[in-house]
Amino acid sequence: MEKVRVEDAVGMVLCHDITEIVPGKFKGRAFAKGHVIQEEDIEKLLDLGKRHIYVWDLSKGYVHENDAALRMVQAAAGENIVFSEVKEGKIELRAACDGVLKINLDTLYAVNSDDEICFATIHGNKQVTKGKLLAATRVIPLAVKEEVLERFEKACKESKTPLVEVKPFRPAKIGVVTTGSEIVSGRIADQFGPVLEKKAAEVGATIMGQVFPGDEPEAITQAILDFLAQGADMVQVTGGMSVDPDDMTPSAIRACADEVVTYGTPVLPGAMFMLAYVQGKPVVGLPGCVMYAKRTVFDLAVPRLLTGEKLTRRDFVLMAHGGQCQNCPVCTYPDCGFGQ
Question: Which listed CATH number (1.20.144, 2.60.40, 3.30.450, 3.90.1170) goes with 62-167?
Answer without folding.
Answer: 3.90.1170
